[in-house]
Write a structure and sequence with these properties.
Elements lengths: L4 H12 L2 E4 H9 L3 H8 L1 H17 L3 E4 L8 H10 L3 E4 L2 H10 L11 H19 L4 E4 L5 H13 L1
Parallel strand pairs: 1-2, 3-4
Helix pairs in contact: 1-8, 2-4, 3-4, 4-5, 6-7
């Protein structure tokens, strides 16, 4: 949810000499339309099933950095898949910064449609609900003040430990 997963993931993959994959982009390719359009037409539950299938495929591979959609990890059933697939990283973007990013990125995000005050309240509630799950990640990096390359460097440093 606007934490910089895709940008930082690409930077980390370049830094480590690995391939990069984005679960939302893979799901959109499989669906033949964008995530927003898919969710609007088929519903969030159908998207989560498609997303899970994509992540299972990605987890079966090795040697890649994967950016997951913000709603994937909070699923208790799916968290085990991630533990088997590699190291998990939580890009912690403090709420005030995240809120500014969300407001700028509202267009293509189904959960942020409607008046901003209502969308912001939904996003804040969702953030609070997801945070305990995200905190279970193997590595946490605070992204405040960091560029994608800086986030990648911080992750790479943690991976060395």
């Amino acid at each position: 949810m606007c934490s910089g997963k895709t940008s930082a993931g690409r930077a980390l993959a370049r830094r480590l000499g690995l391939r990069f994959a984005d679960s939302d982009a893979l799901a959109a390719r499989r669906a033949g339309r964008g995530v927003y359009s898919f969710v609007e037409r088929s519903g969030l539950a159908a998207f989560r099933r498609l997303e899970a299938a994509c992540v299972r495929k990605l987890a079966a591979g090795r040697g890649r950095v994967v950016a997951l959609g913000g709603g994937f990890y909070p699923s208790g059933r799916r968290a085990g898949l991630l533990a088997r697939g590699g190291v998990t990283v939580f890009l912690h973007c403090p709420w005030p910064l995240l809120e500014r990013r969300l407001e700028k990125a509202r267009g293509p995000r189904p959960l942020l449609k409607g008046p901003w005050e209502k969308a912001r309240a939904r996003a804040r509630k969702l953030y609070a609900r997801r945070l305990p799950f995200y905190r279970r990640a193997d590595i946490t990096v605070n992204t405040a003040g960091l560029t994608p390359a800086g986030v990648a460097a911080a992750i790479a440093e943690e991976l060395k430990k």
